[in-house]
Design brief:
Strand content: under 5%
Number of helices: 1
Shape: flat
Order of helices and strands: H
Helix content: 25-40%
Largest sheet: none
Low-confidence stretches: none
Oligomer: single chain
Radius of gyration: 12 Å
Structural class: mainly alpha
Distance between the termini: 25 Å
Length: about 50
Amino acid sequence: MSREPDGKPLSPAQIAAAVAFLASSAADAVNGQVLLADNGKSIGVPMY
């Protein structure tokens, strides 16, 4: 797994896959989280 951002924008299908995951039963235990779908651009950037 690379620690460097890809540099390419995400496709609508990639964003839809993240949304579909959060809406699925696979994410039943996920709560109070921010899912950053930014192709790694926020790696190492403080979020607060």
